[in-house]
Amino acid sequence: MTHWVPELLSPAGSLEKLKVAVSYGADAVYLGGQNFGLRSAADNFTETELKEGVEFAHEHGAQVYVVLNSFLYDKELDDLPDFLKILEEVKVDAVIVSDLGVVETVAKKSALEIHLSTQASCLNSAAAQFWKNKGVTRIVLGREVTIEEAKKIKEEVDIELEMFIHGSMCMAYSGNCVISNYTQGRDSNRGGCAHSCRFEYSISNDNSVEDSQKKFAHFMSSKDLMGLRVLQDFIDAGIDSLKVEGRMKSHHYAGTISKVYSEALQYYKENGNLLSEDLYRWEVELEKVSHRDYHLGNLMAPAGKESIFPERQHAVVETKVAAMVLESIEDKYILAEARGPFQAGDTLEYIFFKGKTHSFQLKEIQDATGETFSKARPGMLVRLPYVREAEALNIVRALPSSLGQREAR
Amino acid sequence: MRIISFHENEAVENFLSFYQQTKKDHHLLGNQEYILGPRALSRVSSLSWEETKKWAKELKESTGNKVFLQWDILMTQSNFKAVCAQISQYASDINEYFDGIRVQDTGALFWLKEHKDIFREELIQEIHLICENGNHNLEGLKSWYNFWPENISRLVLSAEFPAQKLNELQGQLSCQLEVLGAGNILLFYTPRHLISPLYENENENNKLGEYKVFGTSEESPHKGFPIIENGHGTFMFNTKELYIFSEKEKLDELPHFIFRIDFPIESLTCEQWNLLFRKEHESFQNSRSMGHTKGFFRTNKTDVLFKKLKNHRLQDRDHHYVGDVVDVKKKEHVGILIKGKNLALRKGDEIRLLSPEGREKFVTLKTIWSADKENRESAKTGQIFFIPHVGGISVRTMVFKTEVSSH
């Protein structure tokens, strides 16, 4: 007997990240085209890449959703139908939309399924009913909604719900922040967010007081969301899809997060509970990607003062990405592209698509032609020891020396 | 027409005092409306429900003008249910004291339509829908209006629209249109309480839990963002007040617009009301403690800058794209990984190499070999092959099969 679990929806900032996320277990990915999305600085997908990405995802049983969640002006709305036609031709599974004008245009000009973006700040059952009546088939709830509240919305309005389970958090109600517009001349709701909420500010009662009387704080920087421990609550509430934030983040992030949550969901599917002995390992894995301190956000209760991340920089993560496997030369070696610096003597770790990792101490570094080097630099093609399970798109990590020596034994 | 928003007792007192002094000068005052909301329903109001009703009554009696109830908070499910229950409970008061209701939360709009029968007909026919966040296209604005056309009497538009766009819109929407004319520009709204943790041990007397502070970041040239924290969360405003009333020519082209005057940070004194209504723009601006901006009223180019953030050369992938250069060894080789699906390159094919810097090279594949230095006739998707070194080509260079080879 298997148990129902929600879909795991991972970010795909590029074609390679799409393949990584799907290979590591994502049930669906979301991505942006060259226009109409909110992550202007992400690589995003050309038409050719989109076609290839959808084919790859579908071959692996995964869905593809395309974000059209920028707040569009009239001119862009005029251009949208041509893009919708392409999306239909390449058979994407849904579009993610935040603007009512875009919802209307997609509904009129295509047969694409419409998911409402969190940017629309849909927070309650009446709002959900409004959007359902507009033809929306799934709502990505505002990040301020608790799981308990989401459950009630689901009970009142029979519609698919999606909630964020992991990643960076906007401090403001999504779509309600225009700091970048007025301070940087970049429209935050059209892909130009400058992350001003991550800055340190001096706070005072009076604009004219001296620095000594001010309080200095990263007062509006949110900790990152991490919902692994409340996965059971999502399942019990019948939340249809669990979303991982981060189209701008690395392959390491896309792969690691997809792997951890998909393994946890798979465990639940098979056992009907999350009492896995791997729970601790999954949490350790989540610590290995770059992140701010983790927090439950608003998932269980409205976020309080402990949800604020008081630093400018991310937490120091000692585990670094070393390489990505490009090709396995059977019984000989693994060809990998170095993505970070490493050297002979370092302990590296293959992260396979499923199951435990494999760590090994690197005796020497060979380039693609077998010539020996003492160090690998990013971009270099290297030969790594052959391991049968390793395959293209596997991530290779460098472990910190103390941990590495222990794990490599 | 102007609509004036009040958030505290002093603000209404000052305005009424000004009004009493000026009421004979009808030409100066022009047409007006007012916005009032209790702190339970309105984002930055400090008025109790009793105070709200009192001022609504007094404003109507003194001026004969309409007063609208501000219900502009956003509400997650639990709060939404509680607030709707309160609104139902106070429906008779709302019917008595107000001429219409202003909402932003989509749920609030939907709920009003579902519960319209508890309100008097004239009141429920004056719904002002706040569309200030996003909603930058006509299609969307029309759709909001068409959700309840007989009752949505006004759309409140984004302050990010330039005058030219507002001008276009006024001819295409069949309801009233409102935009911020003078006041504080809200930069963000969060339900989190961000300021009180900084004053945890210092404000035992702050029973309402309300804070008004200023924030400055060394990472931004803008100093002194006004910030309000109250029961609804935290609100940060721009360092400068919006003031577009000095743009006479542009305003003349917007005769049907209603301009909102909305100063939640520092309410206007009697004298400042006088200066504002007398259109003594410079004197008014000089009398205020904050600087002034015209915002995006003249032009909005906020999406120009970030178009430059990307290397567009790396995006130029058409259907001839076959892979990337993954290794370069000077005087020896260039390693190419074939990506995509079911692709292959053979000896004799011509490829185009396009580097991230924009350098373009054409190469005919005379010899190709594997990492083991074994000569090959071809390479397919997922494989890495090597060709003799090509000058000026680096890792991340894109590889295309040329038209010649494709045929």
Description:
The complex is a heterodimer of chains A (409) and B (407). Chain A is 29% helix and 23% strand. With 409 residues, chain A is an alpha/beta fold. Chain A folds into 2 domains: 7-175 and 221-307, Aldolase class I (TIM Barrel, Alpha-Beta Barrel); 320-408, Beta Barrel (Elongation Factor Tu (Ef-tu), domain 3), CATH 2.40.30. Chain B is built from 13 helices and 22 strands. Chain B has helices at residues 9-22, 26-29, 49-63, 77-89, 91-97, 106-114, 121-124, 138-147, 163-170, 248-252, 270-277, 281-287, 403-406, and strands at 2-5, 32-36, 66-71, 100-103, 127-130, 152-156, 176-190, 211-217, 225-230, 233-243, 257-262, 291-293, 321-329, 333-338, 344-346, 350-354, 360-364, 368-369, 375-376, 378-380, 384-388, 398-401. In chain B, strands 1-2-3-4-5-6-7-11 form an 8-stranded parallel β-barrel. The mean pLDDT of chain B is 91. At the A-B interface, helix 2, helix 3, helix 4, helix 5 and helix 6 of A face helix 4, helix 6, helix 8, strand 7 and strand 8 of B. Strand 8 of chain A pairs antiparallel with strand 8 of chain B, so a sheet runs across the interface.
| Integer tally of domains of chain A | 2
Q: How many DSSP helices of chain A?
A: 11
Write the CATH fold name of the largest domain in chain A.
Answer: TIM Barrel
The secondary-structure class of chain B comes to alpha/beta
Mean pLDDT of chain B: 91
Strand content of chain A: 15-25%
* The named CATH superfamily of the largest domain in chain A: Aldolase class I
Could you say which structural class the secondary elements and strand pairing of chain A correspond to? alpha/beta
Low-confidence stretches of chain A: none
What oligomeric state best describes the polypeptide chains here?
heterodimer
CATH architecture assignment of the largest domain in chain A: Alpha-Beta Barrel
Mean of pLDDT of chain A: 90
The number of E-state strands of chain B comes to 22
CATH class descriptor name of the largest domain in chain B: Alpha Beta
Radius of gyration of chain A from CA coordinates: 22 Å
Q: And the CATH topology of the largest domain in chain B?
A: TIM Barrel
Work out the helix count of chain B: 13
Q: Residue share in helices of chain A?
A: 25-40%
Could you give the distance between the termini of chain A? 38 Å
Largest sheet report of chain A? 8 strands, parallel, barrel
